[in-house]
Amino acid sequence: MQNILINPARSVGTISPNIYGHFSEHLGRCIYDGLYVGDDPDIPNVNGMRTAAVEALKRAKIPVLRWPGGCFADTYHWMDGIGPKESRKTIVNTFWGGVTENNSFGTHEFLELCRQLGCQPYISGNVGSGTVQEFSDWIEYCNMPGVSPMASLRRKNGREEPWNVVYWGIGNETWGCGGNMTAEHYADVCKNFSTYMRGYGGPALYKIASGANGSDYHWTKVLAEKAGHCVDALSLHYYTGPSRHKGRTGSASVFGPEDYYDCVSRTLFMDELIENHTRIMRNVRSNKKLGLVVDEWGLWFDVEPGTNPAFLYQQSTMRDAVVAALNLNIFNNHCDGVVMANIAQTVNVLQSLILTEGAEIVETPTLKVFELFAPHQGAKQLDSYAEAGLVGTGDDIVPDIQVSASENADGEIFVTAVNADISASKEVVIRIGGIKPESAEAKSVWGDSITDKNDFGQPEKVFIRPLGACVEDGAVKAVLPAGSVTSFTVRAK
Ligand code: AHR
Asked: How far is CA 247 from CA 34, 73, 397, 446, in A?
């Protein structure tokens, strides 16, 4: 029996709903054939947006969607994607397979998608190959309520009201695909772009600088020091893939325990990354709170056999569910520093929530975890601790139980627990300091095996199931299945 202890008297803050954010790039079949199906009569859609995908993402309470990239963003000229579709430019998507991009999904379509999803847009502007003027015009086009050249152009294209886009990214991976810059050089570029990012009478803009790659702490230090006063947040990108130097397989769905624990152990490094980056930002800018936006995270494997290597299409198993939950618990527990996170990517690319084939969609185990965790959004984070044993293989030894907890406005306490041990279930007792639980409801995402996945033409193997939980002796007791993700809603007397 292992204790999970919750201290309702201690909290680091409110869990921003944006921690549960998503990312959609013009990459492979994420937008075209994924979220956007145009006027395909065989796929149910509203204004071109795939209905089944919109409904599934709404169930998971999608709060914010990042677009148009990724690496694509720094090649994207937004004016190519406005106006009558028949006169939009056809371009080459040079980063992702050299495929043709007809620009039929542009600014209006993205913002229509966000409207249908009921989420905030987060636009990543082109710094690598764009201009300060082009970036500034995009903001004016989206946000200017009165009369101006860009507002008139927007109206000519059929949109009267501004969209009031708040979140703007100043380039993407400017240390790599976004321009191969040094931190020092990018800091200057960032200041330059930021200076001309005006509000245009709309909402205050939330400016996100292109931040570090994994543990590049030098990047964060330099950027915070030199450009921290011009932005609201710095981003961080960290993907968990297999450690190939240890000979780990790169397959998303065919793997053994060594591959699994390798991914779990690499995922838990996210905790250290957040600690270090936020500490650096605090130290460098003690007079201003800079947020951390983890706007690309997730598992990155080899593409599925027979698919285009540039499309980054991979399946998703219970391993993805465990990794998603571990990351989300880490973000919750760091909600004083992490203001937004965006898993890569929403549909048909990397650790997706949805896979599509024609009119059919598959809801992946990752989607189930986002749905399970949704009650954390906007709730007050509570201090939590799990008495954990150690499990793993070789030098990938990890804690078996990992948790986070929150309290909503009605005083309900919500706990999410991961049992990362794939060979044994765990009996847990949840004790909440000073509170006598009256009732508890548990739900769990698990399959028969860690390699279980949902697939086309088959009944779902991985889904949210009710789990037995009882209140006894002032505590909540349950058994967490091996390799599972569980949530508890606890009501007090
Ligand atoms: O998500 C795929 C790619 O990974 C993104 O385009 C880029 O930002 C990152 O390297």
From this structure: 33, 33, 17, 27
